[in-house]
Design goal:
749 residues, 7-stranded mixed beta sheet, 6-stranded antiparallel beta sheet, 12 helices, 37 strands
């Protein structure tokens, strides 16, 4: 009887399991992973405020009478419901019979709201809820508000300040979305893992079967930096999981001998392979599989995917061979202004009409610019700019302007031309933030200009003047265009590269000095073996940040675990870990121990200086683990090479790694990182600047001497006098020799 019951129980269990889970042999048919298990499509409701969607113009008037809110819809989402919840306050001067507010959705008129004296006699704020047709939702969507305002039927002047209406800043869009079960196709890649239609921060879990080795980490770093380059300003975060089943869009790394449990029976591969499947437990969650016979093939699979995904089709692709990828040259990152030639504006645009402004008060033209942080701009007035622009003819005698701004602050202005079809070319300079001398530090009250250590926004704002034709009217606005020509150029090829380090501001905002080469082929990262998932997540977040700053994947970053044979020659070094875990794996006479001991000294100095603001920290020994949840970023000169740098990101415990990730992903906190060390805790960030500066780069010898003695005028004067005396002595000796030669020739005669 018991045997019969046991037999029936086993039969029931086998019937409840999917076919692939029953077999101990590798499957040749992968179709069971295509759609996952049937389940009801998840539905979510997303509420976005106008401010979060980037709306800055809330007030409408008679001339600038429209504004718009843009939002997107992901490839893997279907819009089921769309509600517009907004409020507006009209001018009390508007006449209700003829004044109203139009609402357009993707240029379809959806409603007209009258400004009614009966329902709103004192013109207070009114709340409205409008249901929009979800069938009109596209990938990129626009809701536009247009004011039609009249204050006097007999004498209407659109420039009158009596015409206005202001949208409430608490206005929102509520979007109900249903998940779509996309086909598992590489044609969509990088979607749905990264979707350019989604303006929110990328959150993409990376799943490993067990603690990854160096080669697996290098593959993960390359892929996370690729996704970071795609995400750009959105930022990208990569949570790490070990031996987990994905429940959302995820990336999984697996070799034939090291697979997560949910892939134990998945077919082995002989070559580097990338595949997209649905999660076995959530069919709406797609899984990007990075597969290899061993860990070395994982890196090949990632490189093949990054550089070849545009020609990949179907669900699976095998990388048969990878041609030798050339090493990146210094300062050639795609998102940086190149240092070897002039760069045109056409090389920075992201969409065709980016350099064009339309309307009397049109949207300004914006360009994002990143420069090499080590450009030597000492005693330079600015960076040369050749500006070419054109505009529709303006009225003779009226002053229409083109204003140039850097990071939202005015720096220069130009008068618009009133001639037809004529390009205007002007040579100007982009001003720089004041360049420090060797002994000066950065101040918060510097004037407007380019900050070479971070991203800069260059803005061109066309302002057209209109002609009044009478007391109550003007030539109506409309038809005004201004264009910055794509041939406009910036040229930094005449600048040398020389910078004072450590400079954590350049590291936090530009990844320098590691991003000097966009593929990071001259950098090595040290972290402990069997690192906790928090440390691996920090590593991937850091790599994503590097990709966002360069626009190129860091696929040549060398990752090493501490050992006595670490190759650190001629390398810039990054350290991630806890203070004692790295040294525990080393002998005291290894090259890495010298780096780590120096790092421990700098960390101790940072802690002591941060607490007591003193330099006497050489004899202080502090156990960082006793300080609670604390993280420290420190930079110093490599003890192995005077021209190389070390930056360490140290956490007191596993939970403190999140403090470092938060600094990388939060722009406000990133802006606070500067100096040579930064102490981070839950209360904030404290930065420290030591006197242990060193310089990297190259300058002509005369400039080098002049620069380093510029803040020491007495020594410079003495050096100048000595130089003049030496030159005078040499000239005197030369004249004496010539005199003696002439006399000796006269005696012979």
């Amino acid at each position: 009887m018991m045997k019969l019951l046991l037999t029936l129980l086993l039969a029931a269990i086998s019937l409840s399991l999917p076919h692939w889970a029953m077999s101990a042999e590798p499957l040749s048919n992968k179709a069971i992973f295509d759609d996952g298990y049937p389940e009801q499509a998840p539905v979510e409701s997303l509420t976005l405020s106008f401010e979060r969607l980037g709306l800055k113009k809330f007030k409408l008037d008679g001339v600038s009478n429209s504004t718009r809110v843009d939002f997107t819809n992901r490839l893997d989402k279907l819009g089921k419901q769309l509600m517009l919840n907004f409020s507006y306050t009209p001018s009390p001067s508007l006449i209700s019979r003829v004044s109203h507010l139009k609402v357009f959705f993707n240029e379809n008129l959806v409603t007209v709201l009258p400004i009614d004296d009966k329902t709103n006699p004192i013109k207070v704020k009114t709340e409205h809820t409008v249901s929009l047709n979800p069938k009109l939702i596209k990938d990129f969507n626009q809701i536009r508000f247009e004011l039609v305002g009249y204050y006097d039927l007999a004498c209407q002047d659109d420039f009158s300040k009596a015409i206005w209406a202001e949208l409430g800043k608490s206005s929102t869009i509520t979007l109900g979305r249903q998940s779509l079960a996309l086909e598992s196709l590489l044609e969509y890649f990088p979607a749905p893992f990264f979707d350019k239609r989604d303006y929110s921060q990328l959150n993409l879990p990376f799943i490993f079967a067990s603690g990854p080795n160096e080669e697996t980490l290098e593959a993960a770093v390359a892929l996370s930096s690729f996704f970071g380059a795609q995400a750009k300003w959105r930022n990208a975060e990569f949570p790490v999981q070990i031996n987990a089943t994905p429940v959302e869009h995820s990336v999984v790394f697996a070799t034939n001998t090291n697979k997560p449990d949910f892939l134990l029976n998945y077919p082995n591969v002989e070559k580097p392979t990338v595949e997209i499947i649905s999660s076995p437990t959530h069919r709406y969650a797609k899984v990007l599989l990075i597969l290899g016979k061993d860990a070395a093939q994982l890196k090949e699979a990632v490189v093949g995917l990054m550089f070849g995904h545009k020609v990949m089709t179907g669900r699976s692709a095998t990388i048969d061979a990878i041609d030798s990828l050339p090493l990146r040259q210094a300062y050639d990152a795609p998102l940086w202004v190149r240092s070897d030639r002039a760069v045109t504006f056409d090389e920075f645009i992201e969409y065709p009409t980016q350099l064009q402004s339309e309307g009397y008060r049109g949207q300004p033209v914006n360009l994002d610019l990143r420069f090499a942080p080590d450009l030597f701009t000492w005693r330079e007035n600015g960076i040369p700019l050749t500006l070419n622009y054109r505009n529709t003819p303006v009225e003779q005698g009226m002053l229409s302007r083109l204003n140039m701004l850097i990071n939202g602050k005015f720096v220069d202005g130009f008068t618009l031309n009133n001639k037809r079809n004529e390009n205007v070319t002007t040579q100007t300079l982009l001003p720089l933030l004041s360049t420090s001398t060797p002994s000066q530090t950065r101040q918060d009250f510097e004037l407007t200009g380019l900050d070479l250590t971070t991203n800069n926004q260059l803005t061109y704002d066309f302002n057209f003047a209109l002609v009044k034709t009478g007391e109550c009217s003007a030539i109506p606005a409309g038809g005004e265009f201004g264009v910055i020509d794509g041939s406009s150029s910036i040229d930094v090829s005449g600048f040398h590269h020389y910078i004072s380090l450590p400079n954590l501001r350049a590291f936090a905002n530009s990844g320098f000095p590691y991003t000097k080469y966009a593929d990071l082929h001259q950098s090595v990262l040290i972290m402990q073996s069997n690192a906790p998932v928090e440390a691996i997540s920090l590593l991937l977040n850091f790599a994503g940040r590097l990709g966002a700053m360069t626009g190129y994947p860091a696929h040549r970053l060398d990752i090493q675990f501490p050992n006595s044979k670490n190759e650190l020659t001629d390398k810039d070094i990054i350290i991630i870990g806890k203070p004692d875990s790295l040294l525990a794996e080393l002998s005291q006479n290894s090259s890495l121990s010298a780096v780590l001991n120096n790092n421990q000294r700098v960390v101790n100095q940072a802690i002591y200086n941060g607490a007591y603001d003193t330099q006497n920290s050489e004899k202080i020994k502090i156990n960082i683990s006793s300080l609670g949840r604390l993280a420290i970023i420190s930079g110093f000169q490599s003890p192995l090479d005077s021209k190389r740098s070390v930056v360490s990101m140290i956490a007191s415990d596993n939970s403190a790694y999140s403090l470092l990730s938060d600094v990388l992903l939060n722009a406000e906190k990133t802006a606070q990182i500067m100096g040579s060390s930064a102490i981070i805790n839950r209360q904030g960030i404290k930065t420290i600047k030591t006197d242990e500066q060193y310089f990297v780069g190259h300058l002509p010898i005369h400039t080098l001497i002049w620069f380093h003695f510029s803040d020491q005028p007495i020594l410079l004067a003495i050096l100048s006098i000595i130089t003049l005396l030496l030159i005078s002595y040499m000239l005197w000796r030369l004249l004496m020799l010539l005199t003696q030669k002439r006399l000796s020739e006269g005696d012979k005669a």
